[in-house]
Design goal:
MetI-like fold; 264 residues; 72% helix; mainly alpha
Length: 264
C-alpha cells in the first residue's frame, strides 16, 4: 500500500524537536519550580525570590547591567547603523562585515582577550561593574547594529525627500520622520540586547572577577548546589520577564507591522 506524502509531513521533524528540546525541558522546570525537595507542591520557591536578599540583589544588579548596556549599545549603535545605511551599498556591506566579523570568533576567547586588554591598561581590578558593562557592550553591540541597519536600509527614501521638500531641516526630518520609522529596529535591538545581558554571567565572571552576581550566575549556583527547585523557580521568573518584555515591545506582532518600507 502506497502512502500519500503531504507537505504537512515536513513539519514532523520540527514538531519532534519542539517537543523534546523545548516543551519537555520547560515542563521539567515547571515541575521543580512548583515543588520542594520532597516533591510536594509549593509556592515557597517563588516567594523566596522576593524575600531572599541575595536573589533580590542579583535581580537589581542584572537590571542595572542590562539597562546600562542596552542604553550604551543604542547610543553607539544607532549612529553607526545610520551612517552605514546612508553609505553606498558596497561600502556599507564592507563596513558592516567589519562589525560582524568579531562574532565569528569564539565568545570565550573574545572575552578573555578583552580581559588581557583591561589588565594591560590597569582597569581589570578597578570596577567589576564597569568592566562587566563594557564587556557586555563589546559583545552585544552587533546585535543592536544589525536590526537598526536592516530597518534603516529599508526605509523609503521618498518619505525623507518629501519631508525636506516641505521645508523640514535635517534635525526635524530625523526626529519626526527617520526616528519614528526606525522604531521597529530600535525595539528589536533592545530586545536582542536587554534580555541576554541579564543572564550572560560569563562576562561578569571573567571581567568582573566574580565580584558581582547576575541572574544567570545565581541560577547556575543553585543548580550546582543541587537546589533545582530554586534554580527552576528563578528560571521561570526570568522566562516570564522575557515573555512580558517581548509582549509589551510588540515582539509578537506580524512581520508586516515591523517592516521599515521599501528598499532605497
Amino acid at each position: 500500500m502506497k502512502l500519500a506524502f503531504s507537505r504537512k509531513h515536513l513539519c514532523i521533524p520540527y514538531a519532534v524537536f519542539l517537543v523534546l528540546f523545548v516543551i519537555a525541558p520547560i515542563l521539567i522546570m515547571l515541575y521543580y519550580a512548583f515543588t520542594d525537595s520532597q516533591g510536594t507542591f509549593t509556592l515557597a520557591n517563588f516567594g523566596k525570590i522576593f524575600t531572599d536578599v541575595p536573589t533580590i540583589s542579583a535581580i537589581l544588579t542584572s537590571l542595572a547591567v542590562a539597562l546600562l548596556t542596552t542604553f550604551l549599545c543604542l547610543l553607539i549603535g544607532y549612529p553607526v547603523a545610520y551612517i552605514l545605511a546612508r553609505t553606498g551599498m558596497k561600502s556599507s556591506s564592507t563596513l558592516l562585515l567589519l562589525f560582524i566579523t568579531p562574532m565569528w570568533i569564539n565568545f570565550v576567547l573574545r572575552i578573555n582577550a578583552f580581559k588581557e586588554f583591561f589588565a594591560m591598561i590597569n582597569l581589570l581590578d578597578k570596577s567589576a561593574f564597569f568592566n562587566t558593562v563594557i564587556g557586555m557592550v563589546y559583545d552585544f553591540l552587533p546585535f543592536m547594529i544589525l536590526p537598526l541597519y536592516t530597518t534603516l536600509i529599508k526605509m523609503d527614501k521618498n518619505v525623507i525627500e518629501a519631508s525636506q521638500d516641505l521645508g523640514a531641516n535635517k534635525f526635524t526630518t530625523f526626529v519626526q520622520v527617520i526616528l519614528p520609522l526606525s522604531m521597529p529596529g530600535i525595539i528589536s535591538g533592545i530586545t536582542m540586547v536587554f534580555m541576554p545581558t541579564m543572564t550572560n554571567y560569563v562576562v561578569s565572571d571573567i571581567l568582573g572577577r566574580m565580584q558581582i552576581t547576575i541572574l544567570g550566575k545565581l541560577i547556575e549556583n543553585y543548580f550546582m548546589q543541587n537546589n533545582w527547585n530554586m534554580g527552576a523557580a528563578i528560571s521561570m521568573f526570568l522566562l516570564a520577564i522575557m515573555f512580558l518584555f517581548t509582549f509589551f515591545t510588540g515582539g509578537f506582532k506580524n512581520e508586516d507591522n515591523t517592516r521599515g518600507g521599501g528598499l532605497w
